[in-house]
Structures are given as structure tokens and as C-alpha cells.
Amino acid sequence: MKQDKLRIGDEVVWRNSWGKDAPQRVKVKTITINNDNPFSINEVNEIDWSKVKAHNLIIDFYDNTNWAWAYQIEKLEE
What we know:
The structure is a single chain. The protein contains one helix and eight strands, in the order ββαββββββ. The termini are close together. 5% of the residues lie in helices and 46% in strands. It is mainly beta.
């Protein structure tokens, strides 16, 4: 069953190099809403997948020191 929400701790498919590299399976460490104001950081524990678009989120991973924009990640198909 597909999840309707992206949550901290979820595994996702991530593509480095602005979405151009081969897909990798990674675990979500933080989800930050990008509201274009560096002084107004809004970290959340979960967000609806329908709201995961383009540059609206910054995602950090447990697996490495990289981060991603929302468009670089996808649901992990089970």
C-alpha cells in the first residue's frame, strides 16, 4: 500500500546531481519547508506526498551528508 505522507524515517528513492544520477535508496532524516526566508525555518515530521513538489522542501538523509529538493525524491515502490 502506498503511503499518503512522507515522514521522517521513511525510505525514498533519491537521485543526486539535481535528479540526474542513478536512483539510490535513502532514509529521510529531516523535512524542511522551503519558504524562501532563511530566518523562518519550518521543520515538519510529515507532509502529504501531494505537496512534495519542485523546490518546496529540503530533505536531509541519514545515509549520507547530501540533501535534496523535493523533485529529487520519489516514493519507494514496494
